[in-house]
From TrEMBL:
This is Protein kinase domain-containing protein. PROSITE patterns: PROTEIN_KINASE_DOM (PS50011), PROTEIN_KINASE_ST (PS00108). Belongs to the protein kinase superfamily. CAMK Ser/Thr protein kinase family. SNF1 subfamily. It holds the Pfam family Pkinase. Residues 12-171 form the Protein kinase domain. It comes from the Eukaryota. InterPro entries: Kinase-like_dom_sf (IPR011009), Prot_kinase_dom (IPR000719), Ser/Thr_kinase_AS (IPR008271). Coiled coil: none annotated. GO terms for molecular function: ATP binding; protein serine/threonine kinase activity. CIPK serine-threonine protein kinases interact with CBL proteins. Binding of a CBL protein to the regulatory NAF domain of CIPK protein lead to the activation of the kinase in a calcium-dependent manner. The keyword Chaperone does not apply. Keywords: ATP-binding, Kinase, Nucleotide-binding, Serine/threonine-protein kinase, Transferase. GO terms for biological process: signal transduction.
């Protein structure tokens, strides 16, 4: 990481860790030029190659370019160094739907509104041949206004993933 202090690639000021998975960590960041808040997914290339998941990462990026919708986290850009891949994404200030549900039952009108947004996003993806395959409250984020944002297309499948047995195959 070409990181002087908390500045990433002379473009983003990195902030707190938002979350982490097996291959990546997600950080809050601010675009130095525009002041826009973003989330940056930092992926270790070595881990990806060791796990043989380079095609999965490429598919995830290409899928996110394909699915631009108000209820899907937007991909802004992808950058890379010799050791890391940086996926710059829309920042969903409201966090995971999981945390909101864990605090207690949602009011019916709010639950219905969130569900309608989820159906809209899923329908949009399916109309473009994209199948998320990992929808769960942890992958459903909320923006500052409480609008739903579907995230994490790491297990998604596209028609090209279909094999002779008729099933979609990914990792």
């Amino acid at each position: 990481m070409k990181n002087k202090g908390n500045i990433l690639l002379q473009r983003y000021e990195l902030g707190r860790l938002l979350g982490k998975g097996n291959l990546a960590k997600v950080y809050y960041a601010v675009d130095i030029k525009s002041g826009q808040s973003v989330a940056i997914k930092v992926i270790e290339k070595e881990k990806v190659l060791k796990a043989g998941l380079d095609e999965q990462i490429k598919r995830q990026i290409s899928v996110m370019k394909l699915v631009r919708h108000p209820n899907i986290v937007m991909l802004y850009e992808v950058m890379a160094t010799k050791s890391k891949i940086y996926i710059v994404l829309e920042y969903a200030k409201g966090g995971e739907l999981f945390n909101k549900v864990a605090r207690g039952r949602l009011k019916e009108d709010i639950a219905r509104w969130i569900f309608q947004q989820l159906i809209s996003a899923v329908d949009f993806c399916h109309s473009r041949g994209v199948y998320h395959r990992d929808l769960k409250p942890e992958n459903l984020l909320l923006d500052e206004n409480g609008n739903l944002k579907v995230s994490d297309f790491g297990l998604s499948a596209v028609p090209e993933s279909k094999r002779q047995d008729g099933f979609l195959h990914t990792v």
